[in-house]
Structure formats: structure tokens, C-alpha cells
Protein 1
Amino acid sequence: MMSCLDDGRFHGELGNGLSSDGYASIEDAVKVLLQGLGEDTNREGIRKTPFRVAKALREGTRGYKQKVKDIVQDALFPEAGLDNKVGHAGGAGGLVIVRDLDHFSYCESCLLPFQVKCHVGYVPSGQRVLGLSKFSRVAGIFARRLQEPQHLADEICSALHQEIQPAGVAVVLQCTHVHFPDIELQILDPNHQGWLETIVSSGSGVFEDKQADDWADFLGLLRLRGTVMEKLKFRRSSDPYWCPSLSIKVSSAIEPANPGMVAAAAKIIKSLGEDPLRKELRETPRRFVEWFRNFQNKPDMKVSGFLCGRRDALSMNGEVDLNSKRVYAELGIPFWAQCEHHLLPFHGVVHIGYFILDGFKPIGRSHLQSIIHFYGFKLQVQERLTRQIAEAISPLLGGDVIVVAEASHTCMISRGIEKFGSNTSTIAVLGCFATEVTARASFLKTIPSPASPAGQ
Amino acid sequence: MMSCLDDGRFHGELGNGLSSDGYASIEDAVKVLLQGLGEDTNREGIRKTPFRVAKALREGTRGYKQKVKDIVQDALFPEAGLDNKVGHAGGAGGLVIVRDLDHFSYCESCLLPFQVKCHVGYVPSGQRVLGLSKFSRVAGIFARRLQEPQHLADEICSALHQEIQPAGVAVVLQCTHVHFPDIELQILDPNHQGWLETIVSSGSGVFEDKQADDWADFLGLLRLRGTVMEKLKFRRSSDPYWCPSLSIKVSSAIEPANPGMVAAAAKIIKSLGEDPLRKELRETPRRFVEWFRNFQNKPDMKVSGFLCGRRDALSMNGEVDLNSKRVYAELGIPFWAQCEHHLLPFHGVVHIGYFILDGFKPIGRSHLQSIIHFYGFKLQVQERLTRQIAEAISPLLGGDVIVVAEASHTCMISRGIEKFGSNTSTIAVLGCFATEVTARASFLKTIPSPASPAGQ
């Protein structure tokens, strides 16, 4: 198994990764996908999207072209240890752990990126140690491919063991996959964060036995950085699905997936150098297209005929004294959208503020959720989504409206910039929220802050 | 001021950044610096250090060669806004914030890297918005130079304003600089984390006035990610020093800095394309050498003559029943070291465990601190440091010793891998700590974990 690791599973000819041939075939496929959503591929916002997607996919899977040996060979350093009778330290038995290495990978089941927090440990032997940065570089080689968490952990572990020849290597990966939109579930659970986590591990040598003392040391050291493994559930082999696409029932009986789009997705997989007929990849194009078609282009909502009773009730009141109004806040309504620049999901929550008068019931949360989903489930940018939600709800809510969208963008982690902790916020303000900073401030203060626990 | 931004302050000829000429002159200078510490530049661990340092410095200052226009020009998208009478949203007045962008920069006062958490906001105008990832890319252009926090914030702000032409741009930077070793201070304050934080801000257009409503909105949105500005102190112009090298008194009267080393440091600055005679850089080579010479090579400690009374006392007891011993833990002793592979600091804490018998006083913390500093203040790797500490204290403590080092490596954030949250742990175990997993586990449990607050 180890002998083929260096070669990966790459079959294509990528040259320097900038080969226009390879780009062109992905770009063509992306155009087919965009047309399948009913989009005009000459529209300004998406005109260069096929190129951006091709570039991001190529960079994001460049691990196929990289060799572990190239990374490791210049970074093995002689390092004294202790006589085994005295103890274990340094280059002979001294456990080394590198924790919290952030990476991303591509899910081989659905083609979406997933985040990987990687912890690696090893017990050196033979009086030599590996430069610390190389654990991250080697993990990156295998992460930047189409992957599945357990397979990724096994590959990192085997490759490090082969190159370092230590007493043993241990790998723990905390993988987070974007959830798939499920409107019912999200309405039931407003705190739904949109992430699925799975934890996998792999061990070689002294770490081969999960009950070995070395694992106790390794997990004891992970705890020092706050990774408390007792609280986390490792995936068992009886949990077959980690990617949500695998648990979605094939809806082909109702609405068959567009065969042209499925063929285009298969063409992309092939262009990355993978074999679309490999067992794990055979259904991936269909699953990707099922996900992707959530974002079908659709004509604008007829807001005037939607919940109009509410608007009439409020507009009857005409201009009211601001001081007699109070801010009503509907917080943390989940949303989903697909970034039209990179064809990657962004998701988060929308907070809505408006004024209500005594005696009037606030608008139902599920109605707001429906409007948000209507504008979310299409190719979007966060600025536009925020404006569209504000414009749609404003006539229903008397014209004084603030909308704040808080989002994680998959495109901010899974391309060159790799800004793992970053997050984006957008605001749209109408009526007195546009003119009164105190109205905005009093609304923003109602939104809970993650780092301001109760009592602070 | 804005007109010269795109050109930066780069004067050299770097070509593709891999020019062997540029590398060679930095490599030669690094050799002089290593020799100045009394190191043998042919020693295996540091033989390739000059090349690694040259490569890291070149990559870390590649911002001199990058142009903001190249980043921004393809990423300005038409985006509808609202009629100004109705409100503000999208491409006309809809505030956008991108938070928590992790970067690093190089301190122009001392040449050490510092971390930057960058928050950028802008108010679009003219119905156009900038692709979200570009805020990070533009910040990166200016971060990857020799910098000072306020200047960095101003450059990011001005460049974004010039290219986007929005209603205004706001930038907040949380910069953390490695502290300089100060043995007295650290012994007094065992929880000293080794970082200095400063917060700076810059605003253009509607953000020019710090009292403007737009700043209230911006800070209100930062709070949603836990960045509570009221708790943080912005740097005032009356706080002149943020880099600790600027507050160190010139010790040249006592021990003049090696002129050859200072000239070598100046040569490095010049090779990066900077002007060593620029006002802010004139004293930088001397300051760098002052820092660097903390890590002078020195002969091994004569441990046998050090604290030997303690060893005698324990050795008199001979082999004692393990069950009658109890683990004594000395936690969180700060350490400093210089990574010999990259000539960058790594620092953190050492936890020491040993057994004491009833009636014996534990060894003094300041004695342990002295030993740790002796081995820390030289060119090191963490594995060796841990072993050397364990070997040095073992004879003083009866032979049953566990040493855990927890460290942040500046080289893990300030080169290509940029793994901002990563952290490394190493263990050395002697005597029964090498053989008994329960002894190790009971010691590790005494170390507090950051994410296990009291009560969990």
C-alpha cells in the first residue's frame, strides 16, 4: 500500500498546473453546469466564474502532483536521544506532537471542500527528527486531493511512517463538512450552524494499537490545547456516511438529474487527473449535480402578493412617532447560498430588526425564513442577498428595516488565501435604520456575541 | 501619498523571487551572523539554514513586488444598491465587513515577524463591490514588507480606497509582536505569554472621523465575532514604542555589538529591496543583532556542580517504593529559544514533573528557570531543548523526571505554511516516567487545559 503513495492517483498531464488545456476543459464543463442552472454565462458576475473555478480546483487538488519524498528529504536532522535504559527523549523515543494544523480537502463523494484540523504525533527513533513544518506540508499533499477522512488520515500516517522510519506515527483529524440544506431541519433548529464534524485517527508502529500507552500520551497532550478527545466521538466503521450527500435519497424518480450536467461534473473529475470510474467517485457527479441544482435560477418573488395583509395593517398607521415604536429583533435565521464567483457555498445566519407598535404581533419567523431561502437558493453574492431580503421584507414591515447577514464563505478557505477563521458581515438598512445610528446600535446590541459569555 | 503605493519601496531587482543572486547575498550575510554566535556553519542542523532564511525572507517580503491594481482590477463587480432616499444596501451604502484575516508581517524596527489579525470594512458606492477575498490579498501585499502597525493600516486603507473608490474604508489591525526575553520579568510573572499586542486603526472617506456613525456600525459588527473593542486599547500617538527593541537601552557601552554582524544585517535589508538608510531602518541592524546575540553559543553547563546538594539529598534515599512517592509538578515555566533551522524565535512554557518524598522540599522554581534559560538561549530545536532540560535536572531530582515543552514557533506562521493556530509539544521522560504510563498521565492531568474552564 505504501509503495504507491508517492505517485498518488494522478493520471493527467498537468505540467506546471497552469496548462491552458486543463483549464479549458474544466471551464467548458463549468459553463455547462451554469447553463444547467438557467444562467446566462455572459452575465458580468459569472463571466469569469468558469476560469475561477478551474483555477481553484487545480490549486485545490495539486497534491496529486506532489511527492512526500521531495518534502521530507532535506528536513531529516540528526538528533541525539537517550539510552533506552534511562528514558526516552529527543531523537530516540521523545514524543513530538504538532497540533491544530488547518487544511482543507475536497470531498470525494460530493466535490465540495471540507475543513481539516490535523494533529500529528510521532515517536522518533534512530536519532533523527523531522523539521516541524513538514508535518503540515505532508498533510497538505494528501489533503489537496479528492478525499474521505479516514483515507486521508491513513495516507498521512503511512507516508510519514515510510519517510521518517520512526517508532510510530499518530494522526487525528477533525473534519468539518458543510451540511446540505434541509429547510425543515433548519427551521426546527435555528442554532443549526451548518457544519458536520467527524473525527478519525490513524496509527502506525507503537500507535497501531489504539489501547497503547503512546495513544494515552498523545491524547493527553492534545488536551493541553483544548482538544478534549473524551468529549469527541471518533467515527466508527459502523457509521458509513460522513458526507451528507450519501444519505440523500436519489430523487431521480421525481426529477431526473440533468445528464449533461452530470457528464460535465464527470469531465471535471477526469480533468483533475482522477478516474471517474473509481468506485468511490462513480456516483459523485450525480451527487454534485443534485446539490448544485438547489441553486437553480428562478424569477424574482412576487413580494407584493406575499403577506400583503401585514403591509396593509402597518401602512394604515402612516408616519408614527419613532419614540412610541420598539425594535423587534428576529435573530439567527439560517441561510444558504452559492457564491456566484466560485460556485462554492456560503452560509450563516440573518438577523432582522424592525419596529412594532403595541398591539401588533411580530411577523412569523417561518415567513421570514421562506423569504430568506427564496433569495439564498440561487447563485448569489452576500451583498445582493442582504439587499434583496431587506427589499422584500420592507413593505411587509412598515419600511423601517435592518438586515444583517453573517456568513462563512467556503471560497475563503478552499483557495489560495486559506483564511480559515475569516467571516463576513453585510448590512442593509431602510427607513429610520438608515438615518438613526442609535437605532442600528440598539439592534446590533441585541445580537449575542460568541466571546461575551453571560456575565461579561 | 497614494500615488506611490503601488510601487512600494522596492529598489532591488528580484526577478521571479528565486534569483540566485539575491539569495546568495542573504545567505552570505546569514553565515556571518551564525559565525558571530560562535556557530560552526557546517554543522548538520544549520548547514542549510542560510538558504532557508534567505528563502523565508524573500517570500515574507514579496509584497514589495506586488501591485494592488493587479489584485483588484478583475474583482470589481457591478452590484445594485438602493435609492439613497429609501436606505443603504448592496453596491450603494451597504456596509461590508471582512473579519479575522490572519497575516504576518516583518517588524521594521527589529526584523522579527509579527502576527496581524486584520479586519476590513467598506461602504460601497457607485454600484460596485469588490470580491471578498481581495481584502485579504490587498492586506497581504502590504503586510509582506518591513512594517510598523499604523503604517500598515494606513497603507491597506489608502490602497483599498484608491482602487475601489467607495464611500469609505475602515481598517482595524490587532498586531502581536513576540516579546523580548527579559529574565527578571518572566520569573516575576510565570503566566507571561511572550506576546505584546497593539491595536491600530485607519479610516478614509466616511470613516475619516473616528466619531462617525459608520465606525459605530463597524465596531458593532466586530463584536459579533467576539472582538470587543471597548475592552481593547487602541494605540495612541503618545505610545511611541510597540516593538520591544525600541525600549531596550543601548548596551553598546558595556558590550559593543559586533560590527560585522550589524553590517550583515544591513546587507540583508538591502537585499530585500529596502533602503537601510531609511529613517525607521537605520538602527534596525543593530537592534536585530542585540536580539540575536541572546542566543550566543556557549559550552555545556556543568550540571554536576550545580545544585548538587539536592542530588545528594535524594540519592541518599536510594531505591524507594514508588507508591510512597508523590508527583510534584512545576508548571508553566516560560522559555525562549531560537530555531536553528530558520533563525526565528520559538517560545512557550515548560512543565516539569518529579517525585518528592515526604519531608523534602521541592526544588526552587527559580533554579529550574535558570536551567531552562541556559538551554533556551542558544540556537535550538525543541526536541533537543526538552532532552537537555530533562538530562540536566534528572540528577538533581532523583532520576524520575518528566519534561513537557509547549511552544509556538514563529517559523510556523511566517513562511509558506502560515499555520497560525499551530503549536508543538515535546516530552522527555526518565526513570519511572519512561516506564509507567499512569505516572505520565497523572502528571499531564495536572496541567490546566485552556478549553476546560472550571466546572467542566
Note: Chain B touches chain A through 90 residues (CB under 8 Å).
Protein 2
Amino acid sequence: MALVVQKYGGSSVASAERIRRVAERIVETKRAGNDVVVVVSAMGDTTDELLDLAQQVCDTPPAREMDMLLTSGERISNSLVAMAIHGLGEEARSFTGSQAGVITTGAHGNAKIIDVTPGRVRDALDRGSIVLVAGFQGVSQDSKDVTTLGRGGSDTTAVALAAALKADVCEIYTDVDGIYTADPRIVSDAQRLDTVSFEEMLEMAACGAKVLMLRCVEYARRYNVPVHVRSSYTTKPGTMVSGSMEDIPVEEAILTGVAHDRSEAKVTVVGLPDVPGYAAKVFRAVAEAEINIDMVLQNISKVETGKTDITFTLPQTDLPAAVEKLTALQGEIGFSEILSDDSIGKVSLVGAGMKSHPGVTATFCEALAEAGINIDLISTSEIRISVLVDDADLDNAVRAIHNAFDLGGEEEAVVHAGTGR
Amino acid sequence: MALVVQKYGGSSVASAERIRRVAERIVETKRAGNDVVVVVSAMGDTTDELLDLAQQVCDTPPAREMDMLLTSGERISNSLVAMAIHGLGEEARSFTGSQAGVITTGAHGNAKIIDVTPGRVRDALDRGSIVLVAGFQGVSQDSKDVTTLGRGGSDTTAVALAAALKADVCEIYTDVDGIYTADPRIVSDAQRLDTVSFEEMLEMAACGAKVLMLRCVEYARRYNVPVHVRSSYTTKPGTMVSGSMEDIPVEEAILTGVAHDRSEAKVTVVGLPDVPGYAAKVFRAVAEAEINIDMVLQNISKVETGKTDITFTLPQTDLPAAVEKLTALQGEIGFSEILSDDSIGKVSLVGAGMKSHPGVTATFCEALAEAGINIDLISTSEIRISVLVDDADLDNAVRAIHNAFDLGGEEEAVVHAGTGR
């Protein structure tokens, strides 16, 4: 008998009818002889409706109360799914994150899981019950307050529970039927992947692939939890994310796919003294504003002036804070000007096959050149090439690279609109 | 500095605007120098919407999951009120029933409070915070499951917290501005009472007065918590429920008011052997079906047959179960027939003044006779007279008695539509 953890997204439980359909799938899994733990996101628009109410009563709602408010959404969907399962003749018990033992940091709105102590979940399973756990939430270790895990929190809840319960697999049911070689909405012949290693999936997620969030993949890799990405609406085989890239024989290593990201912005600090320590001052200032930077480029110093420029990318939402912080320190750091640009896009090629195939970078750049797309910045890792391009060129860039590396296939992709929770 | 517990009903927080208004009142109380604990019901129609969803996914939802579902309503309203208070510049922290230490029995849907251990509430108050507690809910002592307290549960939560925190007063904000001598929707000159003793309020609640539920008044009396009933929409003085009837000087004792109840039904067991033990069999059968009976009348035995009839009243909703249970035992109990009637109404006169004023029963019956209303059944206690009349005569009966005892006044009543939670 296997132990299966399943996670269903908000659009999969957006109505009573969809809830009944999800319940049928859960009961099928149970009747096939498995122990089943299920994590469900909040129903469809619930979260947006609650956010809207919060905005109506207070301009800057305190984060602690926001977490208390938003976590009710998962409470509702989980108990409804438990009821629907009951209606199909199986036992089901729903637990809040706190009841399921999801212990987190106290960072309301973006808490991290510290530990999972699923004693009550285990007991309920042992009594033959299907267990529902409210995703996206936990309880803070210090103050015992209700917390939320931020974007992708329900996926992370599922993977963390799977790790703590030593589950055989964590199934993530979502709007698409697997991981694709590119976003099928942009590339019409994008191909579903049967398997992806944790490292490749990490790079894909870090580069903007939205099916799985980075934190969830990191958690799965650390605890070696196989993650099976499947569609809630079909019975197609999906994509299995598991295993290390190191275990893939060199001759079988391939290119995983093309990821893109439209959520970044670019900052250039112009006229910085080209003396050791000044670049560090720039990045320390940004770090103090709690902003994560992604790509970095330092231009060659102009000999006549002894000055240089530094360009870096960061989340668009953090751009105003970064500019404000740097401007405040202009005198101390001694640069002449800050330029910023939020109409940029990043396109990345990921895959273990890159290590053993020379010329990938050349083909990559040639493909973009042929499509008439200018490259703004390049950054690479062992299994990834990322470049920054103009936002308007991004879709064309994705298609050009996908095509240049022959990643296309025949199978038609299944895509539904979804939420990011 | 006083400690004030306030409770606001669902209609008082039905919209963002009303929530902001409630927050203003709470902040005023805090700024007047009080510690404030607030219990808020679920917003307006939230409970009905959740019940509707439950019905759509499952015909007979399990009670445990129903409690998990419904308690999210109070979680939402409490965190929103906390946010609105924050927006007005005061600290506020919301707690679930479980976090606030409301320990209950495990009877899902109708749990009883066993104990309140408000350590976290106390700590938050000591740090200068206003505290919000989700009403209507607790956590079961044995299984640590989320429970609900049934009708009037939020009022009971407020009174129980007030008792555990040794609060100076528990203010219940509702749709009407106090306890009236009769329902103002029936009696136009019904008068607001300044004070009512616990015993009188208990009789009023037991006889159908809807402003406070019986359980809440019982709790308040047991722990001697003064309950101040006020309107959420006005600053009128309301009604103070406190003190024992015994403390009222005889010459000041008055008649409290006229209560009515439309929710009962009547059962007559015809042709029961007039031998000791047969009446007991009838009531044992009804008790085994978990049905509470109210009024009882046994007719004089007919000598020629050695048979008698027993009539009793019970909640209308329990009528089918009672008839089924008795019919199943017809052979054993040996009656000839069961008659039932659910178009009845009960009208009651309550007041400590009754003890010292002879002739109250006579005036009561004369008033109904003059109004041409037939009395079906009479039951009395030390401070109450109740009679059963035809449902169609009930409003007239209330008016006739209110008038006969000169209970009317000048002040105009404030009435809003409300919920019963």
C-alpha cells in the first residue's frame, strides 16, 4: 500500500461541481489501495474577494490579521472536499495547517516551513480516513499565530507533508497536464516532458516556469520527494520530477526546455568609482532593502575617468524601493546617475544536456540574431543560459530558441486558466 | 480601568462600511480608558452561503466538517474588524475560539463550553491590544477538533469570556436597543426595560424572547456577569440584565413583560390506561428520542373507561420524530391514538412582581376572554404564567395581556432585521 499526497489548485475546486469531481478522483486513489493525504487551495476567487474586503476596511491591513483572514479560504475548500468525499462513502477528516503540524517562521504573508509534525494526520490515516490539510498555512513556532506561506504555498505544504510522512509520491494537480518544453500559450508545438530531474526543474522554476514554484522544488529536492505534475481535468500521464541530474547517463541528457520571465526590471548604476568595495556598497544597500537581485553585469571601466557602470535585475515590484534606497545613498556611494527599465524580459534555456553539447551558447545567440532580437545581458550556469531582451521581443525569443534546439513535438497541450496559490 | 467584553451580531458587520462603524465604537470604548475584548459573529449572510455550498457537495455533510466550514465565517469577520481597528490607529489582535481557550464538549454543531482558559487573550490585553475572539466556536477537550456552539453561540462566547476574564460588563450589541416588555413588532407601545434580573430574563428567554438566548443568560447568571443589551446603531442606554430577583424590594417588583413563542407543537396521547407508570412510559419514549418537552397537561380520567389523555408541547422541528417514536411503542404503552397540532402559539407573562400581586392569573385569563381567545393549556411558575392558544390568535393575545397589565410606554422602539447566531 502506497501513501500518496495530492494537491489541487484553486481552479480545480472553484465550484461545487468541480469539488465533487476532485472528490471522485481522491476516492478512486483511495479505493485503488492507497493511503491518501490531500492539500487543497482556496476556491477560485475566494482569495481575491477576501483581499478586496480587507482593502475596504483598512488601507494597510496588518500582516498578522491578513493571514488570519486569508487562511479561512483553505479552511472552506478543505472542509467542502471532505464533505464531498463523505458523500461518496469514504471517511474524510480536514485539518488546518496548525492542526496538521505545519510549523513555520513568524514572517506573516511569507512564512517558511521549519518543521512538520503530522501526528494527527498519521493517526487519521491509521484509522482508514482520507486526510485533508489546508494548504498555504501554518502556525508560527514562537507566537503560535496563524501564518501563510506566500506564493506557491499550497504546493510547498503538499511536498513538506509528503516528506514528513515519507510518502511515495506527491501529486500536484494543476491547470496544465505537465511540465512543457516552453509555455504552450507562446509556443504551439511545445512538448510535454515525461521526466525532469530536480536540478533542471529548479533552473526552470527559477527562470520563470510557473507550474511549480522554486520553493516547492527546493523542498522536494532536499527531501527527495518525487513530484508528479498532472492535470486535474484529464487522466494524461503528466510529468514526474525526481532524481538527480547526476544519475542521467550523459548520452541521454537532453535540453529540458525554454523558460521565460516577464516579472523583472533592470537597474543601471552609472559612473561608479572603479575601486574595490564600491560594487559591494551598491549590493549591500539593495540587500538592506530586503530585495533579491538576479543577473549582474559590470561593464569594463573607462580608463580616462576611472569610473564604471553596474547593471542588475530585480523583481519589478521591488524597483521603486531599490531606486529610493540607492538615491538616498548617492553621496556615500558616489555614483553619478541611476537608470531603470521595467520593460524587459528574460528568456532561458535549461537542460543537463548542455554540459555535454558544445556550441549551445553559439546556437542560442545565433537564433536570437536571426530573429532580429538584441541581447541586453547574458548570464549562464552549468545547465542554463539566460539572456535579457526587450519585453516586446520576449515571445519571439522563446519561439526562436525552442525552434533552434528542436524541442517541439506533436502532442497537443492542455491549458486552463489558473491561480498562483 | 474597566474590562469590557463586547459582542456584535452578524448584521452589525454585514458590510465593509458597517465593520468600520463597529470598529469606531470599539476604539471609542478603548480610548475611554477600558480594556476591550470583542466577539463578532459571521458577516450577514456568510453562514447561509456556506451552508448552501455544503448542501451542494453532500446531502448529509458530517457534523465535524460542517463545524470546520462554518467557523471560517467568524474568522473572516473578526480579522476584518481587527484590520479596521488598526486603520483607526489602535492595536488589535484576533484569535480563533481555540486560540482564545474556549474548550468545549465534542458535540459538533451544538457543543457546550466546558472551560475558558484565556491566557493569550490576557497577554494581548496586557500589551495594550484590543482583542477580537471568533464567536460561536471552540475546540473539543478530547479530540482537539473545531466545534460550534449552536444558536446564540456568539453571545455565550462573550459571556463565557467575560466570566473567565472577570470582566466588569458584557455588552451585547444587537438589532434592538434593549429588552422590551413585548415584541415591538407586535405591540406598538412596548416599552424598553432599564434593568431586568437574571431570573426574569431566564423566564423571558425560555418563553421565546429572542434578544438573548437561554444558554447565554444561564451562563451569565451562574457566573454573575452583568449583561448590557444595546443597539449597534444607536447610543441609547439599552437594558442591563443583572442581579438576583431576590434583591429587588417587594414594593418595587414589577411585571417584566410578555413573551411569545411560535416554535412549538402540541401532542395529545389519547386513551392511555390511568394506572401509575403509563405517563412515565410516554415521557421516557420522547426523552429517548432526545426531545425536550415543555408544557404538560393530564386530563381527569374518565371513570367509565379507566383511561386518560396526556397533552404536551415540544419544538415543532421534533414533532415528526416524537410521533414516530410513540407510534412505534403504541402496543407497549397501550394508548389508542395520537393527535398532533403545530398551529399553536404560547404567550407568557413574566415578572417578579407577580409574587406580591394577587389576582394576576385572573386578570390574565379575563384579558384573553375579553379578546375572544380560547385558552388551550395553562402552566405557571413563581414568576411566570404561560398559556397555549391558537397560532392565529397569538399576536392578539400578546397585545391583550400587554394592555391588561399596563406595560405600555411612550418611547419608540428601534428594530432592525437580524440573524440568530
Note: Residues 416-421 of chain A have pLDDT under 50 and may be disordered.
